[in-house]
Fold this protein.
Amino acid sequence: MSLTKVNASALFKKKGALAPPRKKLKVPKLFIFLCLSPWLFGLIFFTAYPMVASFYQSFTKFNLIDSPKWIGLQNFHRMFFEDDDFWKALKNTVWISAISIPLRICFAIFAAWILTKPKRGRNIYRTIFFLPSMVPAVAGTMAFTYIFNPAYGPINKMLQAIGIKNPPFWFLDPKWSKWTLIILGLWGIGDTMIIFLAGLLDVPVSLYEAASLEGASGWQSFRYITLPLITPVIFFSGVTGVIGSFQYFTQAYVASGQVNDYSHSMYFYATHIYYSAFKAYEMGYASALAWVLLVITLLCTLVILKTQKRWVHYPNGSLFK
Amino acid sequence: MKKRLFASLAVAALVGSSLVAATSAAQAAPRTVVVWSPYQTGNLELWNAALKRIEVANPGLKITSVGSIDMAKSLAAINAGTGPDLSVSNGNGNLGWFCGSGAWQKLNTLIAGANGIDMKSTFNAASVASSISNNVRCGLPLYSEVFAFYFNKDLLAKAGFTTPPKTTTELLNYSLKLTTFNTDGSIKTAGFVPWAGYYGFDMDSMWLGQMFGAKWYAGDRSSAFASDPKWAAAFNWQHDFIAKVFGGGNFEKGSKLLLTFVAGRGDEWGTSHDFMTGRVAMKWDANWMAPLYCTGDDWAMAEKCTAKVNFGIAGFPVAPNNLAAYGSGVVGQGQIGISKGSKNVKDAWIVMKALATDTKLAAAWDSANGSPSSLLAKAARPASYPTWYQPIYDVLTNPNSAYHTVKNTGEHLEESLLQNLMASWQAGDTSNIKTALSDLANKVNQIVARNN
């Protein structure tokens, strides 16, 4: 009788000495519930309830003082057909997502790749590269508004010193303001970089050695070994990047306030939600905006999820199924 | 029979005495009024002293004062049904929202009632006018804030001017003389900077409108941005000013130079402020900035000015066709209102009225911070005040000084929208001001219609 035909549990029952049957740990259900209760409390009262409430409020006129008044789909009609700021905010948000996500990924891969090179003092370099991501967003943004100030900021002083007569106005110029925010984002790339660094260090050295013996160039090694093997990290960064960029708020809000961005060149979707809720006091409309944002983010994420089969390679060498 | 009678009388007496006891207990129950304010330290002490006086004058009334509470917190609490009886808002901007949304209760009945107030004989004209549509009032003024014209006497004298400019034409001519450029063509010092975002607490467009006598609303509800030609005149003057003073006739050049100049401004709340360093010679500003300009580093009122800048204060220069309004400025007020859901409106009104008409509190605040009272009573003025500050009182009492009519537009969105337009116009991003003003008026009308 081959082993494969033997019922394993029956075997254990017969020959208990080999491996005693595992004893089921008896934990009272109440204890499990009690352990979970803080999280459950948070989920119900701070996530589920606000979500349900905001879904209901998205169909109402609610000014925070009077009770919400049911108005059907009016908020959504206004959003798509009457609200210029909605389209402006959406356009700005799509722009920053489309530009910043690929740039962040490329920059993070590059920074991580550089950090794999030093033989000595690796940890010091890694700490230096990671530090900016630990600076609070507000402080970092305020520092950037100073550094990029066209009148006295060191960046323009430097650019003028090397012969650029009319350097950009950065945050003050609607054509440059979003690019300046992107530079700010790249400066704080540490968190993404650290994930890519882990991904790069995971690539088996033997593959590079084999490629080297075959005469592959550095670019070929990167293109055909490194890149495919870090696609799961790129995928992860892409998804989290989309979710994060559609909620982009703090840096833009602080920078706008610092430089008086009356042109609304740094007016993003999350800012529009904030203004609708807490400046115009239209909580119903803000809720509708938030739900549309959720749908947009969900759709973008689904598109990335659907396409991953074509380009994400997992460590076992097979395509993700 | 007698026994029954005695028993009945005893029961009746017992019930009667219980009722009396209950009634008197109800009467003796503490009457409490909760007051939230944004005040801190010295101002809160003066405020609490005034509340103490009200308690003494109204035996049985207990007032709980909580300081350091801004309106956002008050609003959240009012919304949650846990708000105070009385809350305070700095400035008029939100009055339309508080009144229109019902966050603050309407006061018309209380004002006209037996324990009411004769507004016109009690408060200055600007304060009386600070109501929303149809004379609906939901706040009482606590103090005034005055926005006037500040000028550097030394710089003006150096350029040959002995008095501040009275008209917008003079303002332009003064600025032409006072503006200097560096060798690289950038602006070194500016005469006057009519630029949204150059200091100004986001109020530059409001002040620009005041110089031209432009109205914010026509009739009761509709926005006057398009219908009042003074708005277009104001913006065209700004355009012309930038071109002539800073661009040598070229608007684009002037706008670009000003953008760099504004980016290099000094800190608004310290000695590096452009007005203190002489980088700008004339500007619109608030009365609360005066103590800083006077002392250089202190916000308290001083008898004699010791700072480097030798400055004067006057009314805004006005458009040549608005000369009658010369001497005026923009005047707003700190406001107090009764919250929605207040359980003790009667006592809240007693406290509110007493606070708004407390001359002792008004004089103390004025003496400490230079916050002029909204009251007409002479006792509301400090016994002595520095002579250099007199122009602030002159602007305050000028019959043409006012804050624009406010409507329920959320957090004064019409002001933000106008400021955005001014910025877009000064940057050259808006080419047709009449169309832009018309679009703006439509937008404001939509917001007002939606919120009412």
Remarks:
- Confidence is low (pLDDT under 50) at residues 1-6 of chain A.
- Residues 74-120+190-311 of chain A form a domain with the MetI-like fold fold (CATH 1.10.3720.10).
